[in-house]
Amino acid sequence: MTTALRTEGLSKSWGGFVANSQISLSLPKGARHALIGPNGAGKSTFINLLTGVLAPSSGEVFLMGERVTHLAPHERVKRGMARTFQINTLFPGLTVLESVVLAICERSGAARIWHRTVAGRRAEIDEAWDLLARLHLDRDADRPTRSLPYGRQRLVEIALALAARPKLLLLDEPAAGIPTGESSEIFDVIAGLPDDVTILFIEHDMDLVFRFARRITVLVGGKPLTEGTPDEIAADPRVREVYLGELPHV
Amino acid sequence: MAASVLGVLFDGVAYGSLLFLISVGLSVTMGLMNFVNLAHGAFAMAGGYLCVALMQRAGMPFLATLPLVFLAIALVGAALERTLYRRLYDASHLDQVLFSIGLTFMAVAAATYVWGPNQQPVRLPGFLRGQIHPGGVDLGAYRLFLIGLVAATTLALHLLMAKTRFGARVRASVDNRAAAAGLGIPVDRIFVLTFALGTGLAGVGGAVGIDVLGLDPTFPIKYMVYFLLVVAIGGAGSIKGPALAALLLGVFDVAGKYYVPEAGAFIIYGLMLTLLAFFPRGLYGRKA
Amino acid sequence: MLRPFPTPAAVSPEEDVIRPAGPCERIARLPADRWTLRETAFWLMPVLGYFAFPGYLMLGSQILIAGLFALSLDLIMGYAGIVSLGHAAFFGTGAYAAGLLASHGWHEPLSGLLAGAAAAALVALPVSLLVVRGQDLGRLIVTLGIGMLFFEAANKAAAITGGVDGLSGMEIAPLFGLFDFDLFGRTAYLYSLGVLFLLFLLCRRLVHSPFGLSLRGIKENSKRMASLGAPVERRLVSVFVIAAALAGAAGALLAQTTRFVGLDSLSFQRSAELLIMLVLGGTGRLYGALIGAALFLLAQDILAGLDPVYWQFWLGLMLVAVVLYARGGVLGGAALLAGRIRGKRR
């Protein structure tokens, strides 16, 4: 099976502070992989190294077998890597439909076109409606993003990432800021994504992690502590120690 | 040649000191309130006119006007902060720019109305005129006074920021306004006090700067780019960065005008473009 | 029998009309550029103005030219979010380019106009590379500094530009070889109106295009745009250069229609007044630029009897008042009002 994402000894440090140290990870195509760890474990730094927002101090990143360590963020997007943000990073003044059409135009290359109207881009618009329907966002299509409740804005966050038709989707705490009862809606959407999309996600809600992930990596102090199936992780005494009994008893 | 180099360097340092004195308040308002105040030069101009008025109408000696100028302009600054500026802290930079350009235009028009469009003369006291000659180098006495005044002010500012509770609170608010407010720091009061301090210093800078920069109603527009440049290159919210940037600008500007007079103001713009091209976030970097 | 439209009396509160539950009603607004009746009415005004106020055609030309200039600023500020304090640099470049051509033997107006736009675009390219890299403060300073630099350069190069005396002695050949630039400014007015209209159509298409949408995306959230794979800086460079070309065209128009270029075409005052026009009319709407330019120049003309010092004071007060009480300008206020009225009706 081909790997979708592979990192080799990925490390990042600032001066004496080591944020990520020797992280080697391998995700096969279609993986549902969770990255967990206490606050300050370096999870967000790791995402930033993968997307190219930060340059690693050492180590390599491979996307679909291709070395992308030195590519700019937008070039990694072109190769199929998309992400969502822990805190909503949206277009508050654009409507939901406009936002998604914009994202799709960026992927399809239509965003450079200046002599035809957006309304005339039938292919992109149809695709946007299909995407919105899948995320149950179609009834909000005409509303400015800023007028949506926070939970629905989280869905727009995912819609924008999906518009890139990613092969690898990085989800940074997709349910952050949503009451527990509503977060399952987000994960139902994620669970419904096609199997050929590889997903790496960070999440704090252990219920969601254990329900959704097929493999889990535990990051502590910038280093991988262990990796395994949810059952293995739940049974691991070291993980229990780190989380001080936060894990559900399986 | 060596003497002329030293002389130019000296003049440049004096000029840079003056730029720093005027701009440091701008740096603090940008760092602390994230407010782009293009009207900052208007406070310096107001200080200049007040100094002239006190000398001509009230017959006060030059040096005696300076504390009064500081207090009066600081008060004006505090009043404007309370009534107008604070309403725009959360506005976009565009709104802040437009608002402060508006204030600048009003200040320019008001100054023209009261004092006319001409340069204002300033009569310096005798001991500040003329030159002294240590080791054969011609040093203007007034320039020496400027450097001394600004050095003393900078030291006082540094102590204020580093050693006092007020300074610690300002630094905390610059780092993170919301967190500072959460810790119970009265951010509102910090804002008005720092704004008043900054405008007061600008006022003094405008007064002592009459002999170097001149004083006419277009002052706030003419020097706007200099003040902004000091902050952009030095970084907002600090003292060290703008001080270094102001000295750098001062020396380059004076040296440029002395050695290549036909290049005029181009030297300074060239320096500006080079620095901004290589250090888009300023010499010391700013928080994003 | 099915009644297509139930009469009001037939619908009681209990049996509300239920919309057909189709798969999805895929109707939503997207940037399109269907021409509306309101727009036709708007553009009829300058045409009617030509016949109604034959004595004010010079002022009319000035308004049309200022409108084009403000349109150019709206592209980069209202749509892409770049605040510029030195947009006059490109206006002046276009004016001097067209003026120098016309005073050195090249009298044909349309090619002169193109040359003005091209010259402005050419100088804007290196400037834009600096502008798009910085953050807000950096951009303010670069644009302000560039503006001052250009002013200083034109001032120093008096041998070419005429310095403070300005550039005069231009000769403009008849438009299309047919229409003389007459003393009453008839040709000048219609020429300005034609150029403005064509370039307006271009802007209108551009802001409704996917490219225009991506500019709004950059203004709203450039970080997200980058994570969607958009080459943010390249987009900003493109729109900056396009806007500079429009500003250059406006400058060229002014040079050709007044046969004079003064240093003030490059001044900070000109850049600042441009900002005022745009916020007065409303940013990010194209028509706001045109309305703002008209209001500004009419006010200036009416108050011209006053001392210029007063004018500058009122200008400043106007800016402060717009920022504090009327964000969004005339069109923004109108949209807000219309929204409230609609809201009450519901």
From TrEMBL, chain A:
SMART domains: AAA. GO terms for cellular component: plasma membrane. CDD domains: ABC_Mj1267_LivG_branched (cd03219). Residues 5-246 form the ABC transporter domain. It holds the Pfam family ABC_tran. It comes from the Bacteria. The keyword Transport applies. GO terms for molecular function: ATP binding; ATP hydrolysis activity. The keyword Cell membrane does not apply. Keywords: ATP-binding, Nucleotide-binding, Transport. This is Branched-chain amino acid ABC transporter ATP-binding protein. It comes from Telmatospirillum siberiense.
From TrEMBL, chain B:
GO terms for molecular function: transmembrane transporter activity. The chain crosses the membrane at residues 6-28, 35-56, 62-85, 97-116, 141-161, 190-213, 266-284. Keywords: Amino-acid transport, Cell membrane, Membrane, Transmembrane, Transmembrane helix, Transport. InterPro entries: ABC_transp_permease, BCAA_transport_permease. It is found in: Cell membrane. The keyword Transport applies. It holds the Pfam family BPD_transp_2. One of its GO terms (biological process) is amino acid transport. Belongs to the binding-protein-dependent transport system permease family. LivHM subfamily. This is Branched-chain amino acid ABC transporter permease. The lineage of its organism: Bacteria, Pseudomonadati, Pseudomonadota, Alphaproteobacteria, Rhodospirillales.
UniProtKB/TrEMBL annotation, chain C:
Its main location: membrane. It is found in: Cell membrane. Keywords: Cell membrane, Membrane, Transmembrane, Transmembrane helix. GO terms for molecular function: branched-chain amino acid transmembrane transporter activity. GO terms for cellular component: plasma membrane. It is a multi-pass membrane protein. It holds the Pfam family BPD_transp_2. The keyword Transmembrane applies. The chain crosses the membrane at residues 47-71, 78-98, 110-132, 188-207, 236-255, 275-299, 311-338. This is Branched-chain amino acid ABC transporter permease. It comes from Telmatospirillum siberiense.
